[in-house]
Write the structure tokens for this entry.
Amino acid sequence: MKKILFAASEALPFAASGGLGDVIGSLPAAIKQADKDCDIRVIMPLYDKVTDKTRARMEKVLETTVELGWRKQYCGLYSLVENGVTYYFIDNEFYYRRGALYGAGDDLERFAFFCKAVVDLLPLIDFYPDYLHAHDWQAAMAVVYLKCLYGNTEKYRDIKAVFTIHNIQYQGMGDMYNMGDLLGLHEKFAPVLEFGGCMNFMKGAIVCADMVSTVSPTYANEILSPEYSHGLHPILEMCKGKLTGILNGIDREYYNPAKDCELVKNFSYMRAGGKKECKKFLQEYLNLPVKEDVPMVIMITRLVSHKGLDIVKESLYSLLEENLQFVLLGTGDYEYERFFDEAARRFPEKMRTLLKYDKELSKRIYAAGDIFLMPSLSEPCGLAQMIASRYGTVPVVRETGGLYDSIRDYGWPDGGNGFTFAPYSGMELYNAVKRAVNLYEDKAAWEKLVLKVMRYDFSWKKSAKLYIQMYERLN
Ligand code: GLC
């Protein structure tokens, strides 16, 4: 029986801030589904965000202290079972009672503590996994501690470490002189963590892991180049032999327009009619003209530059000259918030900007839209284009990372499942949206495309098998 332990800083439905939470909330169950025999568990911090209702379902496993450098910190451990998967929660109120998941001045210490606890707790819960699978910089030090501190210790010795990069932009960097004080690591390990004069958690995990993966094959290739690697390409080039890319899937139950109780009317590709009512509802709700024959372009995104917002800015006013409506939901950089807010004010008949993060509302917008715009400058995988597809909203994406691996252009021989463009420019974006808008006028062709898009299989099935194969290659 395979034993797998995921270490990650977020998981739905407990606490999440983005796509990582989606993946950690759904991939373990998918792996379990594909290999019923495996024992897969997840470990994450117990944030104050975790609701009382969830806490009431938890069992207290133990209390101990974890050493981090000169510190001896309280560490509680709780657990619950969700979808056949055991989730462990590491409790320390000083570190995780902060309101937000990330963004504190001592984030490096908070997540180093988490990682040290992950490896130190294994004997106490008597669970030595065959594979310790850590995700992103917050869990990276678990791999480093495993290999540097316990690599020669019985039982730990056989644990294989996998490190998955969900976003290379965030690496967990700090001053080198903190290494001993903060992490409690001897200076002989400096070459493991040092990169460009800084301590770099992600670099340490890449070097130490037995296998490194990222969330799409194209991104695995892209991060070997300076344009995408945020500096780490020389390290990845060196570790190329153990680097692979596996496309994410989505939880088709959580994102299911046939059952989603956020929608005014449910629908599926068998009975797609309900989508029209969802659109009408949203138009009324947002006080936009209620018009079925005007295509609604939607964007649901964090308002940060790598999401491609600069080329949206370039082309938005030309797009708004077209016969379409535009709805944007998201929060982020002030500069973008102001720009899109202003555009909505100038085009009250056509555009709405909703500056918030709202999971429920997002589902209503996914269901109401006709065209989903995701023109990212870089995109490790992207889940939104898959969610949009599930809700029958045709993606228009830029050909990068996981977007390239999941969406093919309508012009392809088999007709494709969206519209794509490659050069990063407002003009190209405009042309791609325009092609979608033009097709929308051909009702029969559009409906055919919508049905095709809805049926596209973005489940975890294929990818869960690829993860299992990856683990097996390590034996
Ligand atoms: C990050 C990436 C996104 C990916 C997600 C889950 O949020 O930016 O592209 O889909 O992680 O792997």
About this structure: The chain is about 40% helix and 20% strand. The chain has a mean pLDDT of 97.
